[in-house]
């Protein structure tokens, strides 16, 4: 309140958690500028429905129960256009307008001195339609006032995309410092973590389970133990301190650890953390709504292209020992195919056998013939024994849908499946391979297989986090890459990030492509993994097959009688080789079983 009423402050930004009383502060600001410094006020809520609800649950009771406001509000009259849920005028010249950030026309014909933006991270990400950014529109409404006040407040969402985080960084960034009751050293209350010696801590029982009721705070300076009963005294003696120079923009960060509300006691915060710490979606909710901080997936941050590049391995042959079956994923672009061949072993340990491109005019037959030849290739182990691609998934969602259908329909016997990613509205997580019996696979009626791309990407990203094995022992689910991969490949593999969306008050997690990043390598791996899931749905027992190959390697394709040289099929005009040997017969799934 002091900063908002300070003449030297033009803008105030509050990055906060829940349970800190911010809504009541907003009420008091409105009350002050209605009665003590009568002004036109604009309140911007995320949606029109939110604005109506705020007017009914906060503004109406305040006007009714506060004598000084009741006097200037007057009696509400039916059919009075100056006294509606979203617009109110007062006898002293003040007025109050409430709008929703989702309403493009809500900012028109409004001029206000006091602009209050509430929960700005909940504003529609696309702006107010063709009108532009909602915050910029609102600020524009105050340009004629030399003494205007702009207030932004919100719980943050995702780091680097959060509106309130950006506003807070542009401010003088004030934090609340409290004195340790033992050493009297001032410090900011922080959550801390298992690797930090300070912050909120708790005891564990003999089984390693956290005991929330034992919560206490460890002083940053001297390790003093601060009990929950000390919190009221800390808050009373605390003070705001800026961390950046003041240039008319005051910023405040406040989280639930400071709150004196009974349900924000440290023991309850610890209990919440223990309940959600292993769930990514709930963990973000805790970081946003309890810590008042933007969410950053530290695991994803640690997973860099360079770190993956350093894991690349040298293999004795194009197919390492341990591989039991090959699948392929084909991404269909306007002017090329991108293909990844993946080898799968016990417990879905995988090896990226090849990642290739076939270029050409996909409106002609020529590149499709090269793709067909590519998928017929034999991939050899160091002992010369070989593998054919057992199954492949091909993207049909681009500009060549009918051609993909025709190509795959003619090769159903080779388990070449046309696929399409599910719409995944609301963060839907369907199985990677559909569990319903697939119909309409005949030549007269053909439909693509709808795969669960969100679930596949969850699995792939999780497996990329698995640390490399220390030796050549089996590494369940680990993803191996050959030495010929480069940074560009891994940049594509990490081209999407997991983000939290909000729709109608429901939060959900989706994969979103990072602007400016190609994601073909990720798509190819998703499709190749989907092909494996399709094989297992049809009865493939991967572990049994891997064990059987170790015991009976002769079940693989025999070594070639003559040395083989693979033809580069990337560019138009490549000569498609004619095999002089008997082609291996396509095996039924039952023949892949021990």
From TrEMBL:
InterPro entries in the record: GpA_ATPase, GpA_endonuclease, Phage_lambda_GpA-like, TFA_Chaperone
HAMAP family, A to Z: TERL_LAMBDA
Molecular function terms from GO: ATP binding; ATP hydrolysis activity; endonuclease activity
Origin species: Xenorhabdus budapestensis
Domain Phage terminase large subunit GpA ATPase per the UniProt entry, residue ranges: 1-240
Protein name: Terminase
Annotated Terminase large subunit GpA endonuclease domain residues: 249-534
Domain of life: Bacteria
Organism taxonomic ancestry: Bacteria, Pseudomonadati, Pseudomonadota, Gammaproteobacteria, Enterobacterales
